[in-house]
Protein 1
Amino acid sequence: MKNILVIGSTGQIGSELTMKLRAEKGGGVTVAGYIPSAPPTGRLLASGPSEEVNVCNAKQIADVVDKYDIDTIYNLAALLSATAERLPLKAWDIQMNGLINILEVAREKHVAVFTPSSIGSFGPSTPHDMTPQDTIQRPTSMYGVTKVATELLSDYYFHKYGVDTRSVRFPGLISYTTPPGGGTTDYAVEVFYSAVKGEEFVCPIAAGTYMDMMYMPDALQAAVNIMTAKPTYLKHRNSFNIASMSFEPETLFAAIRKYIPSLKVRYEVDPVRQAIADSWPDRMDDSCARKEWGWAPTYDLDSMVRDMIANLKKKFQL
Ligand code: SER
């Protein structure tokens, strides 16, 4: 029986992962950890317990772990890349001080920890095409700095203290339930909202900029599968490249126009996001994840686009 705490349960990943864990598990509890400025509502609130858990408050984390006999923490609290450039000290505080609070609780109370890394953990000197699992990681954004440090600190707690830390490097995540905020890859979500509402989309990323992207159901499955993988098969831990599709803005817009031909796009490139995007891989090699724990995505560009449009139309009753 697993008792799980999802920290950041009302964010883009957390809001869906919490529901998936609640639906899938037999017996245990999944606690939705939140901060007061983003409380759970609707089905998330109604479907299980929720508790205020700020990653920067070690006592709050420890108390909830004790109260529910938690054995696994999904640590999803983070500022995304463009926001982290604006608020670097806050990003450090949440991503690093928050992480060490969680790892210390995990060490004392024998809890497994998943803290996502990202394509943002790579930098301009990383090979951009088929970026290997083990390669140069010298990111130039604060987000990336915290993600590399997250990987290292998580591995450190595993090797030094035996804390069961595991993670994946998420690509840009595309979803329709909860919008992301302040990320470099957000354009690939926002364009769908403009497309279904018939509004012009202003794209902050230049044509020709390739980045790895993934549909949320595959990302959620990865988060579940990595934490339930047989530990003896894991040669790596923090963190695995995972990939499913890589595209540049024009490819995505063309895929959407197959179903919504009227989509109008204008480019107004944001230099901060563009610099970040240019420093990230075009396409990651995820063969280690495939080999070590059976990673296999199910959505490609076309099936993702179809599902996004159908669900957003339902959401907005269009
Ligand atoms: N989606 C994130 C961002 O754009 C990267 O992991 O910041």
Note: The CA atoms of residues 83 and 182 lie 5 Å apart.
Protein 2
Amino acid sequence: MIEIIHRDGLARIGRFEVNGRAVETPALMPVINPNIIVISPREMKDNFGIGAIITNSYIINRDQRLRESAIKNGLHSMLDFDGIIMTDSGTFQSHVYGDINQNYLDIVNFQKNIGSDIGTILDIFSEPDFTYEQAKEAVNETYKRALESKKIKGDMYLAGPIQGSIYQDLRELSARLMDSLDLEYYPIGGVVPLLENYRYSDVVKIVMSVKMNLSFGKPVHLFGAGHPMFFPLAVLMGIDFFDSSSYVKYARDDRVLFPDSTRYLFDLKYVPYQTEFLNSSNLEELKSMEREERFRRLALHNLKISLEEIERIKASIFEGTLWEYVEERCRVHPSLYDALYEFYKYSDKLEKFESLSRKHPFYYTGAESILRPSIGYLEKRIIDTYRYKRKTCIVLRREDLEKAMKYIEKFDSHFLLKTCIGTIPFELLYIYPIFQAILPENCHYRENLSLILDSIDYDVLISWLKGVPEKIVEEEKYITRADKRDLDLLRVRAVADYQFGLGAGEELLKGDVKIVKSKNTGMIRNIYVNDKHILSMRNDGFFTLKIDGGKILHKKFKYPKLRVVVNKDSEEFNKKGKNVFARFVKEMDEYLRPFDEVLVVNEEDELIGVGRTFFNWLEIKTLRKGMVVEIRETLKLNE
Ligand code: GUN
């Protein structure tokens, strides 16, 4: 299992441990060919901080000297590496050279005997040009071999590659079959020819078909994806491990890896991405080096560039900027750009993994930014939870908003703001991603006015796209004047509905409402009703739920809405404020998203406390370890 430390959608920073050795993911495992060691594993660990490598048990087994050394001394001592060593099985050699004449159980046994941390079954490489029948056969045979291999693997972690060529239903089938075996590690195989031919859209379809059918907590490895160009999109799809032989393969041909491209060393006059191994001051010196020395230097450079890309990806997951980063990176090659669009076709499915907000503003990087699931999610939630009750509706442009503010108070109309990420009711202007969005002046407006028309149950719609507010005054006959409206109250109600469900706002605000604002910023901070503190407003415009607010929502909404149900073994701990662990969760509202506010209840649906979940139900039910819900407040014991 991967212990998830930070996440954004399917992307995660995690910790993976085997045999007391641990690495942080996403991680790149450099491929070590035990016959030709260019950068030694020790050097990798000491100078590059590499915690996991991959080598090939078929190559070791075939060579008498290596075989005897591995059996006698163990793999870790043979390679002089005390981090995680994964071994592959020879499947890739069968893809390159044809049949390798190897018994599939013998190779698993051999990996176990030499002390591999993660051994790989001898799967069937499903080529992209396989017929459907051939691919299906590869899936079934791979499954059969995995099933048999599992029986003899002992304590070794076993990797079961997912096959199925380019057929999505077969990839789904393969993922489900292999998942049912509950192996420790899942590579996605058969993609090297696709990557080599820049068929990134096909790889996206494959990865997504697999990810949607595998248990969430399992590590997923993309076999043979060694070019850093594809790392960001792959991580956004939930890939945890890469292996790279590219750093040596390219170096052997004097090819230089950059995060966005590959160049021939002798074509370079400037070095766009520099490392200590290759930069503008040593470029000419490198060109004139002896072949072997140059090869090693380029391998070092290529490895460093690949690792730096992983580091940038991790930084962007942590900072909440991964989507922007991927959109930026996918512009380096038209095939990657196509792949990004292919990925965004899954936005509907990705919404389940989408949180209400991020710590970083929504940056618009181009027309495809509005295809992110966070925007689809926003739109759907507005439709579900915002009700049009007034007779008129005024659509403002962003630049008119300030001018219109004084009218918003006075007119009993809906005011909507037209932006390039959607048309948003003013009550929701301060929530993520709207208020925090950094949008260009000249982006194309998103033509989703149909959203408003469809959900309006009144007959007049006035859309002033120009001339606000003069037009408002002119057209006053359409507008009902209101006594000064309490905009804060309208906002709190609309945000509560958006966040907790339609009707939450009205219920929470029954009674004597006091809204406390920050003296410095004027922003809403705390909401009291009948002197009870029910909600606090966060900087992202959403609420944290206090226990008194939780009690109201628990009464208002029927089981299982907003609930995380814990079993009897956990109940007493949670009542004392201890967090909820995965294996104690019995059920959960399937509409809850990562980082949502939740009601923690027992099996009798009695409220225990309020808190925040880190996962959705799809995820929690497959996680067996780790904390999943943080309890913030519990009922007082005598309540
Ligand atoms: N290396 C690259 N692709 C594959 C694959 O499909 N299976 C295995 N076992 N190794 C690989």
Note: Residues 353-473 form one domain.
